[in-house]
Automatic annotation (TrEMBL):
Name used for this protein in its record: TBC1 domain family member 13
Taxonomic lineage: Eukaryota, Metazoa, Ecdysozoa, Arthropoda, Hexapoda
Subunit (UniProt): Interacts with RAB1A and RAB10; in a GTP-dependent manner.
Any GO BP annotation: intracellular protein transport
Main subcellular location of this protein, as a coarse class: cytoplasm
Gene Ontology MF, one: GTPase activator activity
Function: Acts as a GTPase-activating protein for RAB35. Together with RAB35 may be involved in regulation of insulin-induced glucose transporter SLC2A4/GLUT4 translocation to the plasma membrane in adipocytes.
SUPFAM superfamilies: Ypt/Rab-GAP domain of gyp1p
Length: 306
């Protein structure tokens, strides 16, 4: 069980999932399927040998079938059965000497999984690393772009150190776990808009139905990439960044309150799971308003009791 071959095949299981996920990263823009300016020479000039996706690429199998019709002559037909790892819409590898941005992301995620065996790779991490890498890789300074992979890996590793508990199921019920974060969001909605909270509670529209993805992936799947980067700019600038994440999510709910109050369970689930396009400045301004209100209430509480 501890042999090199066992490790190799276990790694391939992880790599296969990473490969599938990064090929579908941010499909609404062409960035990740385009070539990087600074491919790794050792990899792109290895005739495909050192490319990670080659390890999990499925083969083309040729086979023949013997057909017999009645008492006639048997007919041997050659067929090709292709079992591709690519499905419609997935990004394809580039030619020798070139490397796509998604291949760079794949390498970073696989390396992270190898360096963190206790956690490994969990689906959704590709959505976290994508905006970070994109930010570095499109920098106006060419020298910064050249080191985008290293800079991204450093930042991603540090960010995961802060949010890794969201991806560990055994920690869901702890104060750093995702269930605790969802309960804080419920409390925030209840405090700021009791009518909306009552409506969601009456319909038994639990936060797990929509906010699990919001909180775990830091809203990276709810908005376009430029909007995600704008939200993260405010989020990471705040010393209480994950408190502010709660306020942003609460703001999203309050900004569609009229729809929620008039909608039934089905329409409200659909609304929150597919959040409508909206100017993120409105959301951030509302989040700041909620944050200031909470700080004011907390100060008043302290003045009364201490």
């Amino acid at each position: 069980p501890d042999s090199s071959w066992s490790t190799y095949f276990k790694d391939n299981e992880v790599l296969l999932q990473i490969d599938k996920d990064v090929r579908r990263l941010c499909p609404d823009i062409s960035f990740f399927q385009s070539a990087t300016e600074f491919p790794c020479p050792e990899i792109v000039n290895s005739n495909g040998v050192k490319r990670l996706h080659k390890r999990v690429e499925q083969s083309v199998l040729k086979y023949s079938t013997l057909e017999r019709r009645g008492l006639g002559v048997a007919k041997l037909s050659n067929e090709i059965h292709r079992s591709d790892s690519l499905s419609c819409g997935d990004y394809a590898p580039l030619s020798e000497g070139c490397e796509a941005h998604w291949e760079v992301v794949e390498r970073m995620l696989f390396l992270y999984a190898k360096l963190n065996p206790g956690q490994g790779y969990v689906q959704g991490m590709n959505e976290i690393i994508g905006p970070i890498y994109h930010t570095f890789a499109i920098d106006a300074d060419k020298e910064y772009r050249q080191h985008a992979e290293a800079d991204c890996f450093f930042c991603f590793t540090n960010l995961m150190a802060e949010i890794r508990d969201f991806f560990i199921r055994t920690l869901d019920e702890t104060e750093s776990g995702i269930n605790y974060m969802m309960s804080k969001l419920c409390d925030c909605v209840k405090r700021n808009d009791p009518a909306v909270w009552t409506q969601l509670a009456r319909q038994e529209l639990r936060p797990q139905y929509y906010s699990f993805r919001w909180l775990t992936l830091l809203l990276s799947q709810e908005f376009s990439l430029p909007d995600v980067e704008r939200i993260w700019d405010s989020l990471f600038a705040d010393p209480q960044r994950f408190e502010f994440l709660i306020y942003i999510c609460c703001a999203m709910i309050l900004l569609v309150r009229e729809n929620l109050l008039s909608g039934d369970f089905a329409s409200n689930v659909k609304l929150l799971q597919s959040f409508p396009p909206m100017d993120v400045s409105l959301i951030l301004n509302k989040a700041v308003e909620i944050s200031n209100s909470h700080c004011s209430q907390h100060t008043t509480f302290l003045q009364k009791h201490f």
